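Q: How would the C-alpha cells look for this protein?
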Amino acid sequence: MSKDKVQFICQSCGYRSPKWLGRCPECQGWDTFAAESVSRPEKPRGNSGSVPIPFPEIQADGEARIKTGIEEVDRVLGGGIVPGSVILIGGDPGIGKSTLVLQLLNQLARRKIKCLYVSGEESAAQVRLRGERLGVDSPLLYLYPETSLEPILAQFSSFSPQVATVDSIQSVNSDELESPPGSFSQLRTVVDGLVSAAKTGGFALFLIGHVTKEGAIAGPKLIEHLVDTVLYLEGDSSSPYRILRAVKNRFGSTNEIGVFEMTESSLAEVKNPSAAFLAERPLDAPGSAVTASLEGTRPVLVEIQALTTSTPFGIPRRNVIGLDPNRLNLLVAVLDKRGGLALSGQDIFANAAGGIRVTEPASDLALAAALASSFSGIPVDPDAIFFGEIGLAGEIRGVTQPEIRIQEARRLGFKGCFLPLSNQNRLQYNDKNFQVTGVKNISDFLNTLFPGKGK
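A: Here is the predicted structure in C-alpha cell form.
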C-alpha cells in the first residue's frame, strides 16, 4: 500500500522539505517551494535476470537514422533522427518551436513515415490554421489534442507512430497526481512516462518545453537528464534569423548549429548563413570587423560590431549582445595595458550582428579590431577577416582549422585575413590572390592594422 503525504518541493531542482522554505538550500533559489502530495510506494522485489557482459562481446550495431528532409535539422541531430530517441526542444515564446516541429513532421509524413502531433496547448482548429500557413498536406500526419498523460500513452500504444511530438510537456499532467500541471512531480512523471513509451515502442519523440526568463528549460534539470538530445531554438525577436543549437546529444556532436529565417509562411533553411549575416554590413564604418567562427564542422562569417564613446558617468558601461561579456572585459584590459588604447574610461557596446551568438575565443581578434577601429575612428579593411585568440599577456594564440576559415572567406569574396603567426607558419594553404597576415601580439597587430596606434 502507498502512503500519501504532503511535502514542499523546489520547482527548480527538486529539493524536498517537510516545511515551506523561502530559499532553497540546494540551488539557492528564492520562493521556489510548492506543496505537493507525494506517495511512497513499497519497493518492488524482483530480479531482472541480466548478467554482466564482457565488453568485447557487446554488439555495437550502428543506429539507422531517419532523414527529416530539413538539412539544417539533420546537421544538428548528427545526421538524422535515431528511432527510439527522445529530443527536447526549448526556446522563448513565439520563437518558432511549434512551427519548426510541424514542418518537420510534415516532411517526414510526405516520405511515408507515420507521424502523430499531440497538442496540449492549442485546439485542433488552431493547429490546422498554422498547418495551412505552412502547407501541411500529408494524410500520414495525425493530430491528437490531449493534456492527460494516460490517454496519450494509450494512443502511442494503439496508434504505433514512427515519429511523435508532444507540445508542450508543461501542459500535460497525470491523473494519478493531485499537483498542478508543470509542477516538479508532474513533469517528472510525465517525462518519465513519455520516455519509457518511446523506448518501448521504438518511435522517435519530440518534446517541446517552455523556458524560464533566464532562458533555461522550465522545470528541474532531471528532464534534460532523461532525454537523449536537448535543442534550443535561439534568436532575437527583432531579427528574422533563428539558430537551432544542441546542448546535449547522445548520438552526435553538440557543436553544430542550424540556421533558419522566419518568413511570412514558414521557417526557411538558410543554406549560406555567412552571406546572410553579412548582407547588410557597412563597408566603410569604423567599429566593424568580420570573424570566421567555426560552429562544429561549419565555418560561419559573422560581423562583429563595437562602439566606444566617452562616458558621462563615473563607471563606464559595458553592453554586449551575442558575445561573451567576460571576453569583452578581458580584451578591453589587454588593449588598454598592452596596446596603449585608453579604453578604461569609455562606454563600450559590442554586438554580433544577425542575432547569432558567438562564443569561440577565435573571435577575439575581430572584436579587438572593431574596438580599436571605433576608438580611432578609422575603418578596417572591408576585404579582410580576423580570427585568433588573445591572451592576457597580449599574445595572439593559434586556433583550429584555419584553412577551412580561409576557404569560406575566399568563397564570399574576401581578399585577405589577419591570423595568429603560429597559424600562418603551419598554414597548408597558398593563394597569391589572398593575402595572409600573421601577427604575434596585440601591439604588432595594432601597428599593422593602424600604423602608429600600438605601443
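The two ends are 79 Å apart (CA to CA).

DSSP finds twelve helices and 21 strands in the chain.

Upvote if useful.
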